[in-house]
Write a structure and sequence with these properties.
Layout lengths: L1 H18 L7 E6 H4 L5 E10 L2 E10 L2 E3 L5 E15 L7 E16 L6 E18 L4 E19 L7 E22 L1
Antiparallel strand pairs: 1-2, 1-9, 2-3, 3-5, 4-5, 5-6, 6-7, 7-8, 8-9
Length: 188
Amino acid sequence: MLRRTLLLLMAAILMRSCIAPAFGQHAAVSTNLAQYANFGTLNAEASVSVARRWTLHAAARYNPFSFVNRKDETLQHKQRAFSAAARYWPWHVYSGWWMAGKAQVQEYSSGGIVSQQTQEGRRYGVSAMAGYSYMIGPHLDLEFGLGLWGGWDRYTKYSCPVCGTTTGSGGKGFFLPDDLVISLTYVF
C-alpha cells in the first residue's frame, strides 16, 4: 500500500514537472498606472493566452471618490466599468505590438471639473485599441497603448454635483477616447 502511494505521488510530481513549462507565459494580471491619475481610479485586468498570438482579457475600473477644491466645489469623476477584450499579437503573446477589440459597459457620474454641471449615466460600447508591450524582465512587462470607443450613452444632467436639480436627460451616441494605457503587467 505504501509503495503504491509513493509510486502515485512520484507519478503526480513527474507529470506536474512536465506540464508546468507548458503553462508558462499563458496568464497575466495588470494595472493601468494612467488610470490612477484619473482622480484615483482603481483598476485591474486579467488575461489568458488562448493561442500563440491571441489573448482574452477581462478588466474592471472603480472610482468612488469625490474631491472638494479650495472654493468648496465638489469635483468628481466616479465610475464603475467592466470590459472584455481580445488582443492579437503579431509576434508572441505578451511581447511587442498588439491590437485589440473590446466590449465595455460603464456607469459614471462626472462633474465639477470644467463647470458645476454634472452628468451621470450608463454607457455601452465597443473599442479599438493598439499598443506595445515592453518586456522588463521574464515576468514583468510595461505596456503602452491608446484606444477609441463608441456606443450609446443614457444620461441625466444635474445643475451641480450635490444639489440634485435635474436639468435634462436622454440618450445619444458617442465616440470618445477610451484608454491611455501605461500598464504594469505581471506574466505568469
